[in-house]
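Colleagues,

For the teaching module next term, I've prepared a clean inverse folding example: a structure given as tokens, and then the sequence designed for it. I'd like students to try predicting residues themselves before seeing the answer, so please don't circulate the second half yet.
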């Protein structure tokens, strides 16, 4: 694997500089940050209430459009900027039992405890490590040439689009890790317990969005049901787009498990950096993406409050320039196009791998630094 010009001392200094940034931010957390997350939660709830109220008048087309848009925005905020980040423990420092990773349950069908294990523990520990990080392609897609090809991947451009529509359900089933059962690493009883928890959340969501609120709307039953369905589909497609753009565009690197032997703090930081990609945009994009448009900063500091990522992003970029490390970022259109181009290319047999020329080498061999 190609190497950067970094020495081992450089790598560890890079890590110390990042630790310093993190310590500064954590030490400065206070009322302004608490007001931010409480304000986002209040806005989300107003959008949901307003959206559902408008949908009750959805025999008027403008009311249906406005209500559906408001409800979709509320669901995206709840999923991305609130749920994802609260469950990461980003707001645990507030010691508010209502906004805490141990008590929050979000409005998607993945039970919070199951998602926290597969995402917070597995993914963020083994980021982009083949055979360890199951988020590489979500066990469905070939998104790296290092993944062995199989004929089923010929269909991945199609089933990836279907996955986007039902993304919350795909993630819930993915969190079950059913492939561990034949190997004896997981008992069928444990899987059934988890499946019952998922089924309970599915039942609650279906009852709320596709039965209770449509029935309350009386003669507007069908428009309300369609509005709720559209809002959920919009949330799923948006979440799929943002997450894929942070993990699978050109520039995102993968690693092998043997490269982690004796991995230091500095090397861990470098791996997080090289395995992540950002999305350029304004404040609204960052908010609606749950600040996962700052995927690099999120992977470096997953428990840092998300409202601080935009603040530290220029410092991270400058630090990467100083040490000659790539900081991969691009517009939403560019990153989305890159993801779908990769999915199409890697559906075919062979490496299908092309890295654009750039000044810095594409990966750091974590054993080769001297």
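(Answer key — instructors only)
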């Amino acid at each position: 694997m190609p190497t950067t010009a970094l020495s081992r001392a450089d790598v560890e200094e890079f890590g110390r500089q990042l630790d310093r940034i993190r310590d500064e931010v954590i030490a400065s957390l206070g009322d302004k940050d608490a007001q931010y997350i409480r304000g986002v939660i209040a806005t989300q709830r107003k959008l949901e209430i307003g959206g559902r109220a408008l949908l009750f008048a959805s025999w008027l087309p403008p009311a249906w459009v406005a209500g559906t848009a408001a409800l979709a925005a509320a669901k995206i905020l709840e999923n991305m900027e609130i749920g994802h980040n609260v469950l990461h423990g980003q707001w645990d420092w507030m010691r508010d039992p209502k906004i805490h990773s141990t008590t929050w349950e979000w409005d998607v069908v993945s039970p919070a405890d199951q998602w926290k294990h597969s995402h917070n523990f597995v993914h963020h520990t083994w980021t982009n490590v083949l055979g360890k990080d199951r988020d590489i392609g979500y066990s469905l897609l070939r998104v790296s040439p290092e993944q062995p090809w199989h004929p089923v991947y010929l269909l991945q451009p199609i089933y990836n689009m279907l996955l986007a529509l039902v993304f919350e359900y795909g993630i819930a089933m993915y969190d079950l890790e059913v492939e561990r059962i034949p190997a004896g690493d997981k008992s069928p009883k444990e899987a059934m317990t988890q499946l019952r928890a998922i089924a309970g959340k599915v039942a609650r969501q279906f009852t709320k969005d596709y039965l209770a609120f449509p029935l309350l709307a009386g003669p507007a039953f069908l428009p309300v049901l369609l509005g709720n369905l559209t809002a959920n589909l919009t949330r799923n497609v948006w979440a799929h787009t943002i997450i894929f753009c942070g993990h699978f565009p050109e520039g995102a690197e993968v690693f092998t498990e043997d490269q982690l032997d004796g991995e230091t703090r500095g090397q861990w930081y470098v791996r997080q950096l090289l395995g992540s990609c950002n999305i350029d945009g304004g404040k609204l994009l960052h908010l609606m993406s749950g600040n996962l448009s700052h995927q690099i900063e999120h992977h470096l500091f997953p428990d840092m409050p998300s409202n601080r990522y935009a603040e530290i992003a220029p410092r991270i970029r400058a630090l990467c320039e100083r040490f000659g490390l790539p900081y991969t970022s691009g517009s939403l259109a560019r990153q989305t196009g890159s993801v779908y181009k990769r999915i199409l290319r890697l559906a075919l047999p062979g490496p299908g791998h092309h890295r654009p020329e750039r000044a810095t080498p594409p990966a750091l061999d974590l054993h080769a630094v001297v």
